């Protein structure tokens, strides 16, 4: 625990940073103030650090305006909304398909041969669709956004 | 959700400044912020407003994204001379704003882990507790680390001025 009973000749060092940032306890603040009142070195370091802090906060470390971020945010919103839309759509298609297949197999009055034939047509389409979807998913796997840590 | 999007949009510039300091390149930094936007919009529930403001939380998301990009980057992909080029404004190019320019150059001369502390505190105005949170370090170590970083920046500035 740092206290104000430390000898005067000990420089306050990092407390100077804490001081200008307003992150010190009352006791530490007093120690800095008393010390800087008696130590020219720390006093001038304090004002140098203050100036440095001001200069950094006045600097411009990004040249992109807010319109750039608004645009990027809009792009992202569209992208995310679209992917949620697709998810809903595919979910609904799967459920409807399931109900349709059930009705076709168990409730249709068609003969077995016709059922198999029609089943082959739709089964083939489904396989094609799944293979395309699989390829897309593999491409998505390489998607850089996938594992952004939160 | 709309409010969150607006807030994130406003945080874009600050997050970009941090990302630029970490990645050393303004375009990569913009990608990192863009990716972070997407990560957050996909899982907005990951942010819990009861645990604190959006700003430090979002900065941590951006920082994680940057670290991820650095890890994936081939070592040869970042030539030294390309290190830190946040772009030069016309005023700076004309020497009107030499102090700003000097700060940027001095930042480029100190290690990234010192740069980010200074940017988080002095540019983005985070408290020590928030900085500890963003960096995943103990709050008690922030002051000493920050102080060392400032001393390093000051030396770089002084050397540059000579
Ligand atoms: Zn002293």
Description:
- The complex is a heterodimer of chains A (150) and B (162).
- Chain A has two domains: 13-58, no CATH class; 71-142.
- In chain A, 73% of the residues lie in helices and 0% in strands.
- Chain A contains five helices and no strands.
- Chain A has helices at residues 15-20, 26-38, 40-58, 66-107, 112-141.
- With 162 residues, chain B is an all-alpha fold.
- Chain B has two domains: 1-75, Rna Polymerase Sigma Factor, Chain: A; 93-162, Arc Repressor Mutant, subunit A, CATH 1.10.10.
- Chain B contains eight helices and no strands.
- The interface between A and B is large, with 40 and 55 residues.
- The structure holds zinc ion (ZN).
- Zinc ion (ZN) binds next to helix 3 of chain A.
Protein topology:
The complex is a heterodimer of chains A (150) and B (162).
Chain A: H1 15-20, H2 26-38, H3 40-58, H4 66-107, H5 112-141
Helix pairs in contact in A: 2-3
Chain B: H1 2-23, H2 26-42, H3 54-72, H4 90-93, H5 98-109, H6 112-123, H7 128-135, H8 142-161
Helix pairs in contact in B: 1-2, 1-3, 1-6, 2-3, 3-7, 5-8, 6-8
Zinc ion binds at residues 11-12, 35, 39, 41-42 of chain A.
Task: Tell me the Rg of chain A in angstroms.
Answer: 35 Å
Rg for CA atoms of chain B:
16 Å
If you average the pLDDT of chain B, what whole number results? 88
Q: Say what the CATH topology of the largest domain in chain B is.
A: Rna Polymerase Sigma Factor, Chain: A
**Percentage of residues in helical conformation of chain A:** over 70%
Which residues of chain B form runs of ≥5 with pLDDT under 50?
A: none
Number of strands of chain B: 0
């Amino acid at each position: 625990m740092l206290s104000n009973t430390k000898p005067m000749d000990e420089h306050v060092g990092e407390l100077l940073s804490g001081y200008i940032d307003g992150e010190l306890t009352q006791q530490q603040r007093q120690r800095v103030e008393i010390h800087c009142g008696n130590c020219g070195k720390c006093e001038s370091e304090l004002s140098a650090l203050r100036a440095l802090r001001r200069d950094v906060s006045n600097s411009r470390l990004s040249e992109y305006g807010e319109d750039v971020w608004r645009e990027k945010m809009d792009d992202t919103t569209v992208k995310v909304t679209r992917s949620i839309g697709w998810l809903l759509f595919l979910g609904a298609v799967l459920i409807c398909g399931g109900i349709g297949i059930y009705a076709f197999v168990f409730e249709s009055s068609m003969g077995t041969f016709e059922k198999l034939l029609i089943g082959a047509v739709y089964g083939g389409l489904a396989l094609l669709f799944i293979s395309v979807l699989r390829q897309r998913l593999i491409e998505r796997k390489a998607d850089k956004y996938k594992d952004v840590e939160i | 959700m709309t409010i969150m999007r607006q807030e994130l949009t406003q945080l874009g510039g600050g997050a970009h400044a941090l990302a630029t300091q970490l990645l050393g390149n303004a375009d990569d930094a913009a990608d990192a912020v863009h990716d972070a936007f997407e990560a957050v919009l996909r899982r907005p529930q990951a942010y819990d407003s009861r645990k604190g403001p959006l700003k430090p939380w979002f900065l941590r998301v951006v920082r994680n994204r940057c670290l991820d990009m650095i890890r994936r980057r081939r070592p040869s992909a970042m030539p030294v001379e390309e290190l830190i080029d946040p772009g030069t404004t016309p005023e700076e190019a004309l020497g009107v704003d030499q102090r700003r320019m000097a700060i940027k150059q001095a930042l480029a001369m100190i290690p990234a882990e010192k740069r980010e502390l200074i940017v988080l505190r002095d540019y983005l105005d985070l408290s020590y507790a928030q900085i500890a949170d963003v960096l995943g370090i103990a709050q008690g170590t922030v002051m000493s680390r920050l102080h060392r970083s400032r001393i390093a920046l000051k030396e770089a500035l002084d050397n540059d001025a000579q």
